[in-house]
Design goal:
This protein has one domain. It has 7 helices and 5 strands, in the order H-E-E-E-E-E-H-H-H-H-H-H. A hairpin with a 5-residue loop joins strand 4 and strand 5.
Amino acid sequence: MYASILHDPAFFRFLTQIDAQLAAEARERRCPECEGRLHVADFPRKPRGCPAAVREEYSSRLSFTCGRCDARTTPASVRFLGRRVYVAVVLMLGSPPAGSAAGELADLMAVPVRTVRRWRLWWQRDFQRTVFWRSVRERFAPPVAAEGLPQSLLARFQRPTDHERLIQLLRFVSPLSTASVIK
């Protein structure tokens, strides 16, 4: 069911539009350090996991620098999850619990087994230690099953379509795409 999303350029372009909106909102807020004006300072990315039709759109991460103090402001993103080379949607769908049928998605995307294991470990250990997750996990009752992350989290979002559920999850975890909440 989610496999079709991975090959849908329209879905990936919609994520680009969401990122543009998040970037515009960040730019309007001005520099968090000194209130100076923000100037475009996008940086290059070499994304993996997105369709070839959108690779050019995904080849840069939206970011800004302050015209006064030169501080960098990188807004939240639904396309990228931190510094990872695979796009966020692949990290969500390609990190199945061990032995899960969702492992077929990782095979479909040609993600190396070692990478999938590393992602699983991140979800099982590091994700749960983030300031972000510690601050939001109480929103879910009953608690989200840690051993099934991220699919157990995706299952909590109630939307009519798979596309909408996935977008809702990507928006939810977008604070993880910035360095300030990774710790």
